[in-house]
Fold:
Amino acid sequence: MILDNQTMVAALDASDRARYYHWCTDLSIAGEDYKVNEIVCFVCDASDPLADFIQIKKYDVGFLLILLYTENQNLIAECMDYVDTVKDSFEEIEIRTPYSAVLQLPIMQSRFTLTSPEYPASPVYFIRTADQLLSPKTNTNASVSLYCESDKDEIAKATAVGALDSESINADMFVPCSVFSDVKWYILRVNGEIAGYLRAECGYANIYDIGWLYVEPRFRGHGYACDLVMHFSYDMFAHGQIPHYGYAISEQSARVAEKCGYQCDHPVRHQYRLLPTET
Structure:
């Protein structure tokens, strides 16, 4: 059955906001190019919607995203019948699911052809409470602090003499962003020298998502990225906010998340990009 989006969002929020906020918000926070026009949810049981559900997101750029969190073939069939009625309005359809076997079902094979992803799937990492943090070994010569205006001059001087990579960190980048309700910057120093930063964006409720994590090449390999993530995470929990590691875009980034205790949202690892079969 189709469940109204308001009820589904309430169930997701009540169950696990840290994990599900990506799927229950209006993604206009990502910018107009990625705005979701409509979200349609299919569930087996309205009294327990998270037991088996499918969420369809219609983007305004000709893109349809289907999140399959069920192996129930009747529910999948109901969803596919709906997709048949709207698919001509979309240039591309993507399916994400933790159940890769469902993509082998005749009802799926007859509709879609698997294609190569345009980019590797980026796993999402989340954490619910401060006691889940693993506290990896920290560096005694490192310190992390929230960005302040006095840092701007220090960064400008460091880039001017080539101590910082101006393409990756410069004094002009630490500015507010109208897309998000709030942005926090954390500055990493090693032996008093600026060595990197972490940027976290508040796009939904009290959740701050790591958007950028950068350590200067000459400081890499010593755990300084973990220092940044741990400081950010504890700071969030201390202020009643939820830290989130939105996208680990590389194996190195994923290892940092895992070392700090963040848990992988495994379904995003199984990302399938499909196009309607030509007839």
